[in-house]
Specification:
- By secondary structure, the protein is an alpha+beta fold.
- The protein has two domains: 34 residues; 77 residues, mini-chromosome maintenance (MCM) complex, domain 2.
- It has two helices and seven strands; from the N terminus they run αβββββαββ.
Length: 128
């Protein structure tokens, strides 16, 4: 095969792969949006202390082991806007918006998680 035919064939394959990836991304995006959860779940010392629906805005405070955390829920998702811990890693995490994403404030023993709409009693994983 001459070099020019190989380049032309590689270009066509590259275009087909790019189109396939773009089409699958476009097809998958609505699934992620509709799957995007039922509630924001807040746990402190492994006990549920708050559950808020994702579709309504809310601002609330949770008392952690070292002090309060101010949490907001808006169109962008859930985020910690202020925390009484030293490094404030939970604040720097930013917004979470998809099922099973979490913000963890270890010093305060607080976990904020987007709960999946179909979580129920389904297992996280299955090992064989």
């Amino acid at each position: 095969m001459p070099a020019s035919n190989a380049v032309r064939l590689l270009g066509i394959i590259d275009i087909l792969i790019a189109v396939a990836i773009a089409a699958s991304a476009v097809a998958f995006f609505p699934v992620m949006r509709t799957n995007c959860s039922a509630a924001v779940l807040v746990r402190c010392d492994n006990k549920v202390v708050a559950r808020y629906p994702c579709d309504r805005g809310a601002v609330f405070r949770v008392q952690g082991a070292e002090g309060p955390l101010d949490i907001t829920i808006d169109r962008e998702g859930a985020a910690v806007v202020h925390a009484a811990c030293r490094n404030r890693i939970c604040v720097h995490t930013g917004h979470i918006r998809y099922p099973c994403q979490k913000i963890i404030c270890a010093p305060n023993h607080v976990v904020i998680e987007i709960e999946s709409a179909n979580a129920g009693n389904a297992p996280d994983a299955v090992a064989r």
